[in-house]
C-alpha cells in the first residue's frame, strides 16, 4: 500500500463496515465499471473519524455500508465529463472532489442483518430527490433514519452537503491535496 499518502483500507481498519463499492460494478449512474477492484480507502484521520461514527451507530444497533471513499482524480474527471453539474459533481477546475483527497465517504445505514434502512433515495440518484430539502417532505421514519446517519457523521467531524444525503466530508479536507493513486495499488 502506498502509505506515503497516509491512505488506509477501510476493510482492514474497521471490520464492522460493510461494502458495496458501486464504481467497481456497472451499478452506478454511469452504468460502467470505473474501479479495477472493490476497495475503499481513506485518509487515516478520516478513517479515525469514521470509526467514531461507527461506534455511535453501533450503540443504536446499526452499522455502515460504504459505497465509495477515495476516488482517483482520473475517475472523478470522467464523472465531470458525463455530468458537468456542480450540484452533484465537484468541478475539477475549482479544486475537484473531496473524494480525490481521501476525505469523503458515501454511505448508508444497515441493520444487524445487513438490510439497508430506508433513506430518501437510492445511492447515486443525481436528482433533486437526493437532496436534504426534499427529505423534509418524506415520511417520518425516513427522516429519522437520515437524522441518525447525519448525527453520527457530523458528531464525528464530518460535514454533509445539501444535494446528496449519502455524502459526508471530513471537516479537515482542506489539509490534503487531491491524489491520482490507482486503487489496485492497495490490493
What is the class in the CATH system?
Answer: Alpha Beta
The secondary-structure element order is EHEEHEHEHHEE
So what's the oligomer here?
single chain
Beta strand %: 5-15%
* Biggest sheet architecture: 5 strands, mixed
Principal-axes shape call:
globular
Number of strands: 7
Distance between the termini: 7 Å
Topology:
Blueprint: E1 7-9, H1 10-13, E2 18-19, E3 41-43, H2 44-58, E4 63-68, H3 73-82, E5 104-110, H4 132-135, H5 140-155, E6 158-160, E7 167-170
Helix pairs in contact: 2-5
Can you tell me about this structure?
The protein has 187 residues and is of the alpha+beta class. The protein has one domain: Muramoyl-pentapeptide Carboxypeptidase, domain 2, CATH 3.30.1380.10. Helix content is 26%, strand content 15%. It is built from 5 helices and 7 strands; from the N terminus they run βαββαβαβααββ. Strands 2-4-5-7-6 form a 5-stranded mixed β-sheet, covered by helices on one side. Strands 1-3 form a two-stranded antiparallel sheet. A hairpin with a 6-residue loop joins strand 6 and strand 7. Helix 2 packs across helix 5. The radius of gyration is 15 Å and the shape is globular.
Amino acid at each position: 500500500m502506498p502509505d506515503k499518502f497516509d491512505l488506509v483500507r477501510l476493510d482492514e481498519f474497521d471490520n464492522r463496515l460493510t461494502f458495496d463499492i458501486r464504481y467497481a460494478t456497472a451499478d452506478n449512474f454511469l452504468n460502467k465499471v470505473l474501479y479495477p477492484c472493490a476497495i475503499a480507502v481513506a485518509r487515516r484521520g478520516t478513517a479515525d473519524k469514521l470509526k467514531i461514527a461507527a461506534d455511535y451507530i453501533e450503540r443504536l444497533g446499526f452499522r455502515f455500508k460504504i459505497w465509495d471513499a477515495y476516488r482517483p482524480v482520473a475517475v472523478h474527471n470522467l464523472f465531470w465529463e458525463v455530468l458537468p453539474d456542480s450540484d452533484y459533481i465537484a468541478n475539477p477546475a475549482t479544486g475537484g472532489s473531496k473524494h480525490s483527497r481521501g476525505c469523503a465517504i458515501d454511505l448508508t445505514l444497515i441493520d444487524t442483518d445487513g438490510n439497508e434502512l430506508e433513506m430518501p433515495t437510492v445511492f447515486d440518484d443525481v436528482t433533486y430527490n437526493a437532496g436534504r430539502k426534499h427529505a423534509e417532505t418524506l415520511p417520518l421514519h425516513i427522516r429519522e433514519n437520515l437524522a441518525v446517519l447525519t448525527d453520527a457523521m457530523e458528531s464525528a467531524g464530518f460535514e454533509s452537503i445539501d444535494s446528496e444525503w449519502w455524502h459526508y466530508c471530513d471537516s479537515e479536507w482542506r489539509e490534503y491535496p487531491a491524489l491520482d493513486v490507482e486503487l489496485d495499488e492497495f490490493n
